[in-house]
């Protein structure tokens, strides 16, 4: 006896192309774990893998009518997630190279007082950004990042699902990176990545 699915994926893609959020939710729920697990193997980071899931699904949502040309959604999303993961690895490698090159210059002209002032200023900017977070994101960030609790522990503490905690953490980190980037110079940004 074969079980027929409750929905046809091609029909869902047509509905998403028309802006149907319920169809999108079905596809999101179906592929979330697949994309996350696939990206995690490449990136070795929970938070960055979750960002890949969000970016992949956002790209899918924004495709509009071209969605209807996709014949194999599983393969398409896997390719999209792989490309986004590789982009993030390249970005990480570039940031590491800049930090390494900058670090070599700092060794030659090391000034501990200047570095300490920069670090303190950067921490102040980060703290100001944390204060601007919505209450739930602020709590999740504090518990996960500052107190070192795992997503499951925070979820239990705040009576939320682990998925919601992961989403709040991702949103908080994205906001803080953008906030710090727009309020500090390059040297401070490199320091702040160490604080994250």
Q: Can you give a write-up of this model?
A:
- The chain is built from nine helices and no strands.
- With 196 residues, it is an all-alpha fold.
- The radius of gyration is 20 Å and the shape is globular.
- The chain starts with 8 loop residues before the first helix and ends with a helix.
- The model is unreliable at 106-110 and 186-196 (pLDDT under 50).
Structure classification: mainly alpha
Query: Can you give the mean pLDDT?
Result: 78
* Quaternary structure state of the chains depicted: single chain
The biggest sheet amounts to: none
Gyration radius over CA:
20 Å
Q: Measure the end-to-end span.
A: 52 Å
What does this entry show, briefly?
The chain has 196 residues and is an all-alpha fold. The chain is 81% helix and 0% strand.
Write the layout of secondary structure elements.
Elements: H1 9-17, H2 21-43, H3 46-62, H4 73-108, H5 112-132, H6 135-146, H7 151-158, H8 162-183, H9 186-195
Helix pairs in contact: 1-2, 2-3, 2-4, 3-4, 3-8, 5-8, 5-9, 6-8, 7-8
Search tags:
disordered C terminus; 196 residues; 9 helices; mainly alpha; 81% helix; globular
């Amino acid at each position: 006896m074969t079980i027929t699915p409750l929905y046809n994926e091609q029909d869902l893609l047509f509905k998403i192309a028309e802006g149907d959020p319920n169809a999108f939710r079905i596809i999101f729920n179906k592929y979330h774990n697949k994309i996350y697990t696939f990206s995690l193997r490449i990136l070795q980071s929970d938070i960055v893998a979750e960002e890949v899931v969000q970016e992949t699904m956002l790209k899918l949502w924004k495709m509009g009518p071209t969605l209807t040309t996709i014949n194999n959604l599983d393969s398409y999303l896997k390719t999209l997630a792989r490309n986004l993961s590789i982009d993030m690895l390249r970005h990480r490698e570039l940031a590491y190279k800049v930090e390494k090159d900058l670090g070599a210059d700092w060794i030659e002209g090391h000034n501990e007082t200047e570095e300490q002032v920069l670090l303190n200023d950067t921490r102040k900017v980060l703290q100001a950004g944390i204060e601007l977070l919505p209450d739930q994101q602020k709590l999740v960030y504090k518990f996960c990042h500052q107190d070192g609790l795992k997503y499951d522990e925070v979820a239990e503490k705040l009576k939320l699902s682990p998925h919601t905690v992961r989403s709040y953490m991702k949103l908080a980190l994205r906001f803080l990176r953008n906030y710090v980037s727009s309020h500090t110079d390059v040297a401070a940004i490199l320091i702040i990545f160490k604080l994250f």
